[in-house]
Design brief:
Four copies of one chain form a homotetramer. Chain A is mainly α. Chain A has five helices and no strands. In chain A, helix 2 packs antiparallel against helix 4. The longest helix of chain A has 25 residues. Chains in contact: A-B, A-C, A-D, B-C, B-D, C-D. Chains C and D meet through helix 1, helix 2, helix 3, helix 4 and helix 5 of C and helix 1, helix 2, helix 3, helix 4 and helix 5 of D.
Chain lengths: ~120, ~120, ~120, ~120
């Protein structure tokens, strides 16, 4: 069992113990994921990019960021479990595609978006 | 090496090969994560909760949802790597807290929010 | 002066009185807007679509939704002011486009997405 | 009729002409709003704060930002109309509160968050 599978199993039990499965439709879980992502974003909104790179050295801000990352991960794993999607596999599949789209020589040092793959 | 660590390592190489590290500040990665979460959300916005539960049975919508989950996972893992946060550990820590906040008897079958822990 | 222009003017004074203009770059304001949108979303995440339609009849939930809509509007107007974009005009321009893309007969009662305009 | 009321009226007709009202529950509209906010965010994610301040001088990026602002405004106005909330009034009410929370002398030049009002 991978660490993600262990987390997904714990989340399943947590929801079952509270009869929360009816709330945990993919639609609702996607909303909860986006809500938590918004809270994570709020931790960074007034920081300069440079300040954001050292946010973990501030004990209070660092603890908040870690907690928000935990919340985002929780809902992402729960949503993927509900949809029976392997998150790591899905990410690798997208990276395979990005490697084809973004040739290192053409896209070195630029944030320009590549055209979609044919 | 866990699957997440393997994914993080591949993302580090992917960014390095394109000189994209300057773009990958935590602030920017949090924005990219939120942008991808918005695309995932869009897949569910007009579905009923019931339809959302069977979205993976539609080959086209299912493929889009899987791809968006892959994008969200990609930026979440890249962001956590930049901040040196263990996502699974952070999620378990938040669940420890939720287990204290949400007593199963008091919160059975209700989506009511618990007061913050003292 | 339209009501939006009045609001934008008040926001400009509010920021100036606190020397907050350096924080109010379009990038940061877009993040703040997304953070507030996430809080608005959280009000609806566990509601059924039917419950969401009557949320304003609950005094507490209704007050929270109104406050979150106020926050979203505040940052949207502040962002548009920083970019010198007329929000109502921009919305009408997108609607002109949607009227061309979504022929009423073809798209009656379906949430199917239209192909992009040529 | 204010410009926002005019836009809300046009949106009502647009939805009615396509029998789209059943899709336009507050829950779904909040999701669509968040999805569009995510697209707006994506326009700024790799820009420095300084670059974001001049984004409208680039014809292509400027046109995309304007279009995304139009989309966000469209769903915000449609959502507020569905909930019968006056957006400008709601924003002014939140600003009244922020003026009490954020004393200009105490919060000059700092992005520190004020404690909630008692």
């Amino acid at each position: 069992m991978t660490p993600i599978e262990g987390l997904a199993a714990r989340l399943r039990e947590f929801a079952a113990a509270r009869d929360w499965e009816p709330f945990h439709t993919p639609k609702n879980l996607a909303m909860a994921l986006a809500g938590e992502t918004g809270e994570l974003l709020a931790e960074f909104q007034w920081l300069t990019p440079e300040e954001s790179a050292t946010v973990m050295t501030d004990p209070e801000a660092g603890a908040r960021v870690r907690a928000e990352l935990g919340d985002v991960m929780t809902y992402l794993v729960r949503l993927a479990d509900a949809l029976d999607v392997d998150l790591v596999e899905a990410a690798h599949a997208k990276l395979d595609e990005s490697e084809r789209r973004y040739d290192p020589r053409t896209y070195r040092g630029t944030a320009r978006k590549a055209p979609p793959l044919p």
